[in-house]
Amino acid sequence: MSAESPDPATGGDDPTKKVFFVSLGCAKNQVDTEVMLGVVENEGHQIVDDPTDADTLVVNTCGFIEAAKEESIDTILELARLREESGKKLVVAGCLSQRYPEELAAEMPEVDHFLGSADMLGLEKVLRGDAKRMGVSALSRRAYLYDHTAPRRTMGPRHSSVVKIAEGCDRPCAFCIIPKLRGPQRSRPVFDIVAEVHALVEAGTREICLVAQDLTKYGDDLVERGLAPANLEQLLDALTQIPMLRWVRLHYAYPTAVTDGLIERIAQNPKVATYLDVPIQHVDTDVLKKMRRGYTEKVVRSFVDRVRAASPRIWLRTTMLVGHPGENEAAYHRLRAFIEEGAIDHLGVFPWSREEGTAAAMLPKRVQEEEAARRAEEIMEIQRGIREARHRDLLLGRTLEVLVDGVSDESELLLDGRHEGQSPDVDGKVILCDGTAERGDFVQAKVIQTSAHDLIASLDLDREVDED
Description:
- By secondary structure, the chain is of the alpha/beta class.
- The protein is 32% helix and 20% strand.
- The protein has 3 domains: 8-135, Rossmann fold (3-Layer(aba) Sandwich); 160-392, tm_1862 like domain (pyruvate-formate lyase- activating enzyme, Alpha-Beta Horseshoe), CATH 3.80.30; 396-458, CATH 2.40.50.140.
- It has 13 helices and 19 strands.
- The strands form 4 sheets. A 6-stranded parallel β-sheet has the order 2-1-3-4-5-6, with helices on both faces. A 6-stranded parallel β-sheet has the order 7-10-11-12-13-14. A 5-stranded mixed barrel has the order 15-16-17-19-18.
C-alpha cells in the first residue's frame, strides 16, 4: 500500500467497526488513548475488550526509553500476527510513530496506518476508510492539544481520573527525547481545565491526578498565545473550589520551579493531596550539569528541606537516573548516600539508556549497562528497607483516610484502596481486610500491618495492631 494512498478497505457494507485498544506508557499516553476511545464512540463504533472480536486494532505506543520501545515493538508484532490471520486492520499511534515514522512504515508493511503523538483525532478518518497510511503530523506550537470538548472516554474506575493540563516540554535535559516526541510546551487555559474537571466530578470522579511533562511550567506560554495568564497555583485555587472533588494530585514538578506558594497549598489546602511527584534524577552536581538539569546538589537538598519544613505529612515521589555518562563511582556513592538518608518516600530508579537524538547520546565516559543495572538494583534495595521502616514507624497503628478502589487483586473478600500519599498504580495500596465499602468511598481505616510496599488496614478502628 502506498504511504499516500487512501485505504478503502476499512470501509465495507457495514460501517460499524469493532475496535480494540492497547495503551502503553505513561498517564499522559493514557489520556491520549482515552481521546481515541471517545473518537470511536463518537463515530458510532464499538470498543471491544478481546482483540479476536475486533476488526480494527489500535496500539498507542511509548518511545521514551529503550525498554519502552521494545515493549511497543513486541506489542505491534503480536497484533500484526493476529491481523495476518484474520484480516483485521492495524493502527499504530503515539510516540514511537512520532519518533520513527518512515522507518516503521518501511519495516512494518503489516501496519495499515500510523498516527503520531498529536494525531488522536486522525483516527476518525481511519475508521471512515479515507485516511492515508501515514498520518503522523509534524509537531509545532499549533500541534493538537485536547480540551474539555474533546471526545474523551475515561478508562478504568470513574472515581479517579487523569487530567493533562499541558503538552510538550521546553526543558533542554540531555537524556530526554520528550521535546522531540511531544513538541514544545502547550498549556491549556484554566477555564478549559476547570470545565473538564467539573464534568468528571459530575460523573463520579473524586480524585484528579494532574499530569504534564512539567507541571511547574504550566501557563508560561499562555500569554504569547493570546490567552489569559495563569500559573499552577492559580489553577489549583480554581480546581479546589469544585464541590465533591476531594483530592487533586500532582505529577510532575521540576525541583527548581516548586514555589513556596505551591508547597503551602499542598501542606494546607485539604483538597490538594499531600503528595508531590518531583523527578530529581540525581544529586551529584557534576552529573546534574552533564544532564543539563540546571541545578546542584545544594538546590536538591534545599528543596527537600523546604517541603519537610512546610509539613512532615507531604509524601515525596521521585525518579533517579543511574549510569548517565560521567557518573563515576564517587558520583554514584553521593546519590546512594542521599537515598540512605531517607529523604524520599516513593522512588523509581532507571538505568540510563542511549537515546539517539539526545545530547547525552554523544557524551563520553559511559557506564557499562551491567553496572548501571546493578546500581539501580542496589538503590532500590536500600529504598525498600527505608520504606519498610517508615511505614512501620509512621503508619502502624494510625487511622488513615482511604479511598476505596474496589475489590482487591489479592482476594474477592478484600478491598483495595489508597491513602493520600499513594498515587494510583505506582505507590502501593492499602488492603482493607474487613468490612464493606463501595468503590469511590472514602473510609477511615486503622493500619494493622505494614510492609515495604502495601499496608493492611481494618475498618474496625479498635482492632489490635499486628506487631509481627
